Amino acid sequence: MAGLLLFTSLAAFSGCTRPEEGTSGEAVPPVPASAASGTTPPAGAGTSTALTPPSDGGAEAAAPAGEGVPPGSAEGAGTQGAPPAGQTMPGPPDVDGDGFPGSSKGCPADMVLVAGNYCPEVLQSCLRHHDEYERDQEKKKQKQDKGEAAGSSTVSERCLEYRAPTECLSKKREPMRFCADRYEWPNKKGELPALLISWTDAKKTCESVGKRLCTEDEFNFACEGEEMLPYTNGYVRDPAKCSIDKPYRKREHKLRKYDRCMKDPRCKAELERLDQRLPVGSLPACVSPFGVYDLNGNINEWVERPGKKYPDRSGLKGGWWGPVRGRCRPTVGFHKEDDYGYEEGFRCCKDAEP
C-alpha cells in the first residue's frame, strides 16, 4: 500500500491512543542516564517485529503542574572522542578537520552547525509499509466494508521505503542557522541518553548550560537537511543503521523520575527490564546531513512547539528504540510539559554566532 504523507511545520502526529499511566514523583536534578542500570545494552540494532507498540511517545507519567528542578549540571556539555584514525565516516565531510562530520563553526565544540534553507511543508510518498501496518489497515477496511466502526489503532505507521526525492510544497523556503548538540543529552559519546525526564526539566537543563530546547522546525531541519529526507540517513528504513524496531516490552510497574527511580529497587529493576537504549554515537551511520547523531530512534526527544501555551508547548520527535515511526517529521503532541517516560529524553540547541 503506497501512501502520501503531507507534513507542515507545526503539525502534531500521534502514533497511538494508549499512553500508559505512571507515578508522579518529586522533581530532582537530572543526572546522566549512563548510571541508570549498571548494564549497557548490547551494541547493534534491533530487528523488525510484529509486536504492537504503545506509541512513539510510549509510557508517560503526569507530574504535578509547576513541578521543576534546580538548574542542571554543566557536565553534559563535555567533549567527545573522534572516530578512530582511518575509519570511514558517514554523513557530511569533516569540514573543520576535528574528526567529526559537518562543522561546528559559530557553535561550541560539542555542537554542530545546522545552516541552510528549510521547507516548512513537504510531501513524502511511502512506497512500502511494514507488514504489521498493512495487516492493521486491512482489518480496518474489512470492518468499514461491513458498516462497522474501524476504531482506534495502536499500530504505528512504519514506512519501509519512500519515493525519492521528497517534494517541497512551500512557495518559499526559510533560511535557518543554529547549533544542535552532536549527541542526545548528556551529549557525551559513549554515555546512555537521559530518560525519565519531563519537558519542563529538560528545558531547565538546557538553559542551565547556556542552551535551549530545539524547536520542532529545528529538529526537522537538523534531521532531514535540505533534501528533506524522511529518515535522517535516507529514504529507506534500516534498523541496522539507527536504533529502531526493537521488540516492544510492556511496562508492568509504575516508574518515577530518574533520580527517585534509582533509589526505588522495584522502579530500578523495572527500568532495567524495559531499557533498550544504546550509548549515544554507537551507530556511526545514524547521522544527519549536517553531522548530528541519533536523531531517529534510541530515545524520543523533547522539543518546543512555538505558538503553543502551557501545557502544550511540548512535543516529542524522532522516535525511540521500539517499533514506532522513528523518522524526522512526525511530532507526538499529546505528552504534556510535566509528563515523563522511560523513552523520553532530549538534546539542546543554541543560536549560532555570525
What does this structure look like?
The strands form four sheets. Strands 1, 4, 5 and 6 form a four-stranded antiparallel beta sheet that branches. With 354 residues, this protein is of the alpha+beta class. About 23% of the residues have low confidence. It is globular, with a radius of gyration of 19 Å. The longest helix is centred in the middle third of the chain and has 15 residues. The chain has a single domain, classed as paralog of FGE (formylglycine-generating enzyme). The protein contains five helices and 14 strands. InterPro entries: CTDL_fold, Sulfatase_Mod_Factor_Kinase, SUMF_dom, SUMF_sf. This is Branched-chain acyl-CoA dehydrogenase. It comes from Chondromyces apiculatus DSM 436. GO terms for molecular function: formylglycine-generating oxidase activity. Pfam families: FGE-sulfatase.
Features:
paralog of FGE (formylglycine-generating enzyme); 354 residues; alpha+beta; 4-stranded antiparallel beta sheet; 14 strands; 5 helices
Distance between the termini: 47 Å
**CATH class bucket:** Alpha Beta
CATH names the topology as paralog of FGE (formylglycine-generating enzyme)
In round numbers, the mean pLDDT is: 81
Number of helices: 5
In brief, what are we looking at here?
With 354 residues, the protein is α+β, with helices and mostly antiparallel strands. It has helices at 131-145, 199-208, 216-224, 258-262, 265-274; strands at 3-7, 61-62, 111-118, 122-129, 159-162, 167-168, 174-181, 212-213, 300-304, 314-317, 331-332, 339-340, 344-345, 348-351.
